[in-house]
Design goal:
Layout (H helix, E strand, L loop, with lengths): L1 H43 L4 H11 L12 H13 L7 H14 L13 E4 L5 E4 L26 E2 L1 E3 L9 E4 L2 E5 L7 H5 L14 E4 L14 E2 L14 H14 L4 E3 L12 H15 L5 E8 L1 E2 L5 E8 L2 E4 L1 E5 L11 H18 L7 E3 L12 E8 L4 H19 L3
Parallel strand pairs: 4-12, 6-15, 7-9, 7-10, 10-16, 14-15
Antiparallel strand pairs: 1-2, 3-8, 5-6, 11-12, 12-13, 14-16
Helix pairs in contact: 1-2, 3-4, 6-9, 8-9
């Protein structure tokens, strides 16, 4: 009787384990369906992202203000990734798989500088001639000037922290050949492979070579005469003379001045609906590539948004020729997400060499290159990148200075200088 009772208890225990496993599977699938339906409902009736995205983020333990775009392709890829990662013998695999999906439903926030080499310029006859190297600003608009009198921080405002980002403090930051990198992927990278690589762009053929777009077209900056901002300040503006589109104008002008034919598409992708901005900007990129098949580089110009632990908003600046310029960060996508991006390392050739040139011309201008697990539409060409110019509390004047310096470095690299 005792033996029989023991076997019966063992049988009950087995049944309970199966029931527990079934309950776990059902619960996880239920959670997944909840997020899926919540997202699809929000997008189908075009609710403002702010109305339902914070709920999803909170449930997933996410607090960063990143882009909330998600395409059907991305979602389908991670559904497949979820089921392929399941291990019936290991309940922990369910949590790992579903966590992996949710980590991509809302892409991560992008938060993420001597000697000068000889430079060349085109003279009046179209020939390259030597130019004395100097750490100075390229040609800027004549009306560009900082506000003379800065208002003190008002009651209830957050004081702006003015910092210079030289390197990161986490284990993901590495430095090689003077290039500072925040590598968010599992791939070990050798800087020499990219610094010494030949770039595929051919400037001898006719037609536009560079396309400038803005996935987050309404990103803007703080007024130039303030030391603090309201906690509700978002840095959004639809006026193209005051937002990131103005910065794109400067980059476009300098590249064209250096003989690199550049197109600037100022289509709004994050207004009136923020959600789906990357999907819409990809359509803009594809439209331009079809119209101008000679385009070999796509630069998606953004600005960052960063706060300290105490809530103080941060702006990143460097001093160039006695003037404050917003620091610049190149953000590079990879093949680590469910979206296909097999040639992502080709883009790194441009990023590493542009970063090196910025360091040569304008020490401290460049923040570390941020290599992300996301794709960011950078599969479109072999020379795609995001360029983050300052943060939401830099001034437009600082952003224009920083962007002009970065554009000169890009022009030098593309011209083989």
């Amino acid at each position: 009787m005792k033996k029989l009772l023991g076997n019966g208890s063992y049988l009950a225990m087995v049944i309970n384990k199966k029931q527990l496993l079934l309950t776990l599977i059902t619960s996880l699938l239920g959670i997944f369906l909840f997020f899926f339906l919540a997202f699809r409902l929000g997008t189908s009736i075009e609710l403002p992202a702010a109305s339902y995205k914070p709920i999803l983020k909170s449930a997933m333990g996410m607090t960063a203000d990143g882009d909330d775009s998600i395409s059907d392709e991305l979602l389908a890829g991670h559904i497949m990734q979820f089921f392929s990662g399941l291990d019936p013998r290991n309940a922990a695999s369910y949590m790992a798989s579903i966590g992996n999906i949710f980590s991509y439903i809302v892409p991560e926030n992008v938060e993420y500088k001597e000697n000068f080499s000889e430079r060349l310029i085109l003279d009046a006859t179209g020939k390259y001639v030597p130019l004395e190297s100097q750490s100075s600003l390229p040609s800027l608009p004549e009306d560009l000037s900082d506000s003379e009198e800065v208002q003190p921080v008002q009651e209830g405002e957050l004081k702006i922290a003015d910092l210079t980002s030289l390197k990161g403090s986490t284990k993901n930051y590495v430095e090689a050949e003077g290039i500072k990198i925040k590598n968010g992927t599992d791939t070990v990278l050798d800087a020499n492979d990219y610094l010494n690589a030949e770039l595929p762009m051919n400037l001898e053929t006719g037609g536009p070579k560079v396309l400038i777009v803005h996935t987050h077209s309404t990103e803007s900056y703080a007024p130039g005469n303030v030391a603090g901002v309201s906690p509700s300040f978002t840095g959004r503006n639809t006026n193209p003379d005051e937002n990131i589109i103005k910065v794109g104008d400067i980059v476009c002008d300098i590249l064209n001045q250096n003989g690199i034919e550049t197109i600037h598409d100022s289509t709004l992708h994050d207004y009136p609906t923020y959600n789906g901005a990357y999907t819409r900007s990809l359509k803009t990129i594809e439209k331009n590539l079809e119209k101008y098949p000679t385009i070999e580089m796509v630069i998606d110009v953004h600005r960052d948004a960063i706060s300290l632990n105490d809530g103080s908003p941060v702006k990143y600046t460097a001093e160039v020729n006695g003037e404050k310029a917003a620091q610049v960060m190149l953000v590079m996508g990879s093949n680590d997400s469910a979206l296909d991006h097999p040639n992502w390392k080709e883009n790194l050739k441009y990023a590493f060499q542009i970063q090196q040139r910025m360091n040569q011309l304008y020490p401290q201008l460049a923040r570390p290159i941020n290599i992300s697990t996301n794709r960011y539409n950078q599969h479109a060409t072999l020379g795609s990148m995001i360029m983050e110019v300052g943060t939401h509390v830099n001034t437009l004047e600082e952003a224009i200075r920083g962007a002009s310096c970065a554009a000169q470095a890009i022009a030098d690299v593309l011209n083989g200088i």
